[in-house]
Design a protein that fits this description.
The protein is α/β, with parallel strands linked by helices and about 400 residues long. The chain has 2 domains: about 5-215 and about 395-410, 3-Layer(aba) Sandwich (Rossmann fold); about 235-390, Rossmann fold (3-Layer(aba) Sandwich), CATH 3.40.50. It has helices spanning about 35-45, 95-100, 105-125, 135-150, 160-170, 170-185, 195-200, 245-260, 275-285, 300-310, 325-330, 345, 360-375, 375-390, 395-410, and strands at about 20-25, 50-60, 65-70, 70-75, 130-135, 155-160, 185-190, 210, 235-240, 265-270, 290-295, 310-315, 335-340, 355. Strands 3-4-2-1-5-6-7-8 form an 8-stranded mixed sheet, sandwiched between helices. Strand 3 (about 65-70) and strand 4 (about 70-75) form a beta hairpin. Helix 1 crosses helix 15, helix 3 (about 105-125) crosses helix 4 and helix 8 (about 245-260) packs across helix 13 (about 360-375).
């Protein structure tokens, strides 16, 4: 059941602030949790910009059902009686859980019903003025249900990539289901021009509500640390072991790099269903001494890794944005990415990094070797990327843009 402490509603409100309900299935559950950390950063920034953010997210066994932190009120709705069964969110495998078993659709239906019920409760008790959801699934589905009975309540949707890929994958069913809801949105923010183009290609009538708004970055965590020595032959990739991330092409490219630069080393940080395949490929190419795999680490640890790296690589297909690249830029590393998806929004070829063709290990190896061999070029591209990231991805200006957007849709 939805938990709601009675004494909370006696807290006085700042009537000048816009009361914004934020719906998401990913939000930090504890100190150091990186699930939905960029949404947390945004909501905390909004709290000082005339917006009173109230977050609704799924409960998890590691999280409190209610808390207030950084000017943000957070509710987490229960969707099963046993906390051990509350595992649909936060793990990056919701689609597999829903479609991977006979019980999956029924569990997801119950999840959506509890999500919607909790949202309606908060809308009434918190006198919500604007609803904002992150990702079409599941938040957009909940917003769609709310909109059908709450005509006139302005809504903003934000997409980060995975939801648009899902809609394309199931387009015959998904977009007819969402079409009326999407056309009724006041604003739909996307993190890259690539995602905007993908949605307009699906429905040109949505062009007027779409706005490119990149993910906010925590410049208090990601910055150039002059106390850390950069390693001239050290390459890093922060990714996931999935087909989209194309990690096998990076490993094959690195085999070519090692032939000419035996001292080079590669560290890959991530997890995912294809990890065993990547481990086998590393062994087959006899790269065990040069390539090391690590589980995902805390953001503070990533800062240190980025500051040590000579090059950070994201070799991905139709990436919605490419967060690891922009984070690395803020830490002063030069970046290499595929000319695919939202990555070209971040990297301008030979200006603030290097773009390579998709699934081309030879071209990727050539790009890495050029940067390893040419330290002046590496420094120039890294400096240009750093300035660009500071100007375009800092959390303060992006939160200000979002706060204005909330004001506009309310007006």
């Amino acid at each position: 059941m939805f938990y709601c402490p009675q004494d909370f509603f006696t807290i006085s409100k700042m009537e000048s602030n816009i009361r914004l309900l934020v719906l998401t299935h990913n939000y930090p559950r504890f100190e150091g949790d990186y699930s939905g950390v960029f949404i947390s950063l945004l909501t905390k920034r909004l709290a000082g910009l005339g917006v009173e953010p109230i977050v609704l997210a799924p409960h998890d066994r590691e999280a409190a059902e209610y808390e207030q932190t950084g000017g943000v009120t957070i509710y987490r709705f229960r969707y099963t009686e046993d906390p051990e069964d509350e595992n649909l969110a936060y793990r990056g495998n919701m689609e597999q859980q829903v479609f991977g078993s006979l019980s999956g659709p029924f569990r997801f239906h119950r999840f959506l019903n509890r999500f919607r019920s909790a949202a309606l409760d908060i809308i009434e008790k918190e006198r919500i003025q604007v609803v904002a959801g992150h990702w079409l699934v599941p938040s957009g589905m909940v917003m769609k249900k709310i909109a059908s009975g709450r005509a006139g309540l302005p809504m903003i949707l934000s997409s980060h990539g995975t939801d648009i890929r899902l809609m394309k994958k199931h387009r015959r069913i998904a977009y007819p289901y969402f079409k009326r809801f999407c056309r009724g949105l006041k604003k739909w923010t996307v993190v890259s021009s690539f995602l905007k183009e993908e949605i307009v290609r699906l429905d040109s009538k949505l062009a007027g509500v779409l706005e490119v708004l990149p993910l906010p970055h925590n410049e208090a965590i990601f910055y150039k640390d002059e106390s850390i020595q950069r390693e001239s032959d050290f390459i890093v990739s922060v990714t996931r072991f999935t087909d989209q991330k194309r990690v096998k092409y990076l490993v094959k490219a690195f085999a070519t790099v090692v032939e000419k630069r035996p001292q080079a080393k590669l560290e890959i940080y991530g997890s995912g269903p294809l990890q065993t395949d990547i481990e086998r490929l590393i062994k087959d190419l006899d790269l065990q001494r040069q390539v090391t795999l690590f589980s995902p680490v805390r953001q503070e640890e990533l800062r240190e890794v980025y500051n040590r790296a000579a090059i950070v690589v994201l070799n991905s297909f139709e990436e919605g944005f490419g967060l690891t690249l922009s984070e690395a830029m803020l830490c002063g590393a030069v970046v290499v990415g595929t000319d695919s998806g939202g990555i070209p929004d971040i990297i301008k070829h030979q200006k603030r990094g290097v773009l390579v063709p998709l699934d081309d290990s030879a071209a990727l190896a050539e790009a890495i070797l050029e940067l390893l061999d040419n330290s002046p070029l590496r420094r120039t591209l890294a400096d240009n990327g750093y300035r660009f990231a500071r100007e375009n991805y800092a959390s303060g200006p992006l939160a200000t843009r979002y706060a204005r957007l909330v004001q506009e849709v309310l007006e």
